[in-house]
Amino acid sequence: MNKYTGKTFQFPSPAKLNLFLHVVGQRKDGYHELETLFQFLNYSDNIEISVTEGTEITLLTPIEGVKNDDNLIVKAARLLQEKICLINTNPLVVMGAQIRVNKILPMGGGLGGGSSNAATILVALNLLWQSDFSTEKLAELGLSLGADVPIFIHGFSAFAQGVGEQLTPATPKEYWYLVSKPQISIATASVFSSPDLPRDTPQLTSDNFNQYYRDEYLFDNHKYHNDCQTMVIKHYDEVANLLAWLVEYAPSRMTGTGACVFSRFSSEKEAIELQKKLPNGIYSFVAQGQNKSPLISVVKIIENRQNESNNWLN
Ligand SMILES: C[C@@](CO)(OP(=O)(O)O)[C@H](O)COP(=O)(O)OP(=O)(O)OC[C@H]1O[C@@H](n2ccc(N)nc2=O)[C@H](O)[C@@H]1O
Ligand SMILES: Nc1ncnc2c1ncn2[C@@H]1O[C@H](COP(=O)(O)OP(=O)(O)O)[C@@H](O)[C@H]1O
């Protein structure tokens, strides 16, 4: 009997920022080699999962414009099922789920919402279906769904290399951010296929990063920048204009391939003050950087609670 069957649980699926994003080369298969500094935000989608018997995966809250079969939530759940079936032939194994997602993260914003949803599903169902795969194995599975999935599975801020899967833990200061976005979304593939994307930023390497990174140097564009921003501001006036406006008030940069940009503050109050001044038609929220993903603590709490109630029954 699976101890979680018939029960419902809530899991956070946080946003990430790329505090900087350097394109340092391109692989033979076309994928770009990156060096980036990831930090989570305390701003998350919420995913509710009810564990059911059998193998049915039902997403009760479809996302507009994304077919359920293409939704990274469903794809991640099916991928985990496939891997469980390879090691377990017991037909009574519990691998069903009814899933609801409350999405607050904008899509195509560079906040990694889709990858984060996939990671939350892999980590949560690994617990609830009791499949017991290691974090490394889940990250390996996740990488086949998207380059950003491993960071959300590991759940610590990191300097990342490769396509974003080689992680060195990092602890950038947990500043407050105003995240804002013009009413456009930018497809990751269109940025990486552009001839205007700089692809030759010299590599930092993890040793150099560890030795020389300081939060106060982050917005010194000679040291750290976002190469995708160079391409995006050339092609999207909306982002160029928003960034030009923001930098008059606070250090600001684009995250990932955009279209969200973040502005850094020492306090929540200062971030909210600038939010009030934003030009009309700009989507925005204020959140704090977090070096630990809230997903990992929620998983620990559920595990501990369940163990305590089992001990009490025994
Ligand atoms: C750029 C980053 C930085 O964190 O974030 P986003 O802005 O998308 O959130 C990520 O590396 C994005 O990762 P992810 O969103 O998973 O990208 P994928 O779906 O794997 O890739 C979409 C397409 O972009 C191109 N691509 C992606 C990543 C990469 N390192 N090189 C590439 O050339 C490939 O053509 C790929 O088919
Ligand atoms: N659960 C999901 N949440 C968000 N986007 C998803 C999801 N499943 C599939 N997608 C697709 O992934 C694309 C990228 O979304 P997202 O990860 O939010 O943006 P970004 O990669 O810019 O941070 C979306 O435009 C959408 O087509």
Automatic annotation (TrEMBL):
SUPFAM superfamilies: GHMP Kinase, C-terminal domain (SSF55060), Ribosomal protein S5 domain 2-like (SSF54211). Its EC number is 2.7.1.148. Keywords: ATP-binding, Isoprene biosynthesis, Kinase, Nucleotide-binding, Transferase. Pathway: Isoprenoid biosynthesis; isopentenyl diphosphate biosynthesis via DXP pathway; isopentenyl diphosphate from 1-deoxy-D-xylulose 5-phosphate: step 3/6. The active site is at K16, D148. The keyword Metal-binding does not apply. The keyword Transferase applies. Catalyzes the phosphorylation of the position 2 hydroxy group of 4-diphosphocytidyl-2C-methyl-D-erythritol. NCBIfam families: ispE (TIGR00154). This is 4-diphosphocytidyl-2-C-methyl-D-erythritol kinase. It comes from Colwellia maritima.
